[in-house]
Specification:
The protein is an alpha+beta fold. Helices cover 23% and strands 37% of the residues.
């Protein structure tokens, strides 16, 4: 069995109306995506699907913990994630992405695999800057050896003289 098959919603046999679904996302989920920034985690995904005649409206509520490399020291950092997303799936005669929240799938499809949507939504919940937090004294809690090496490299840095010339132009205007 393909691991991601557990994230399939067989909607064709469901009556019209609201249907709740619960999914667990763990380390094996992230292993299925080769270029995932997230390396591990434990996330609960609650999906409420409103089955209409020619449309599915899915409301996702995502909550849990994930682990990914720190942007500064590359050591694992654990982050709490929580968010809500909406997906509208229209039944038509072809596959098409109408917008960020509206997809069209052929009405001959009987199932909807939501694993790629969960993957995308989790990555959208990530902060732009992912670093270990500072301690109570305002000092970084990143790996000390890495911080030491970064400081050494910064002190050895010699600025490119072309940038210095541009900086002079910037300050003269």
């Amino acid at each position: 069995m393909n691991y991601l098959e557990q994230y399939i919603i067989p909607f064709s046999g469901l009556r019209l109306g609201v249907h709740p679904f619960e999914f667990k996302v763990d380390d094996r989920f992230f292993d299925q995506f080769e270029y995932s920034e997230i390396k591990s985690g434990s996330v609960d995904v609650h999906v409420v699907m409103d089955r209409e005649d020619r449309m599915l409206v899915l409301d996702f509520h995502i909550r849990g913990k994930i682990s990914l490399p720190c942007d500064r020291c590359l050591e694992p950092i654990s982050l709490e994630v929580e968010g809500k997303e909406k997906l509208v799936v229209k039944l038509g005669d072809h596959y098409e992405e109408e917008s960020e929240v509206v997809e069209i799938i052929p009405e001959t499809d009987k199932i909807l695999n939501i694993s790629s949507y969960i993957y995308e939504y989790l990555h959208l919940l990530l902060p732009a800057k992912r670093v270990h937090p500072n301690d109570e004294n305002g000092l970084s809690t990143c790996e000390p050896e890495v911080l030491k090496k970064l400081k050494e490299l910064d002190e050895q840095h010699v600025p490119d003289p072309r940038w210095e010339a541009l900086n002079k132009l910037k300050h003269n205007s």
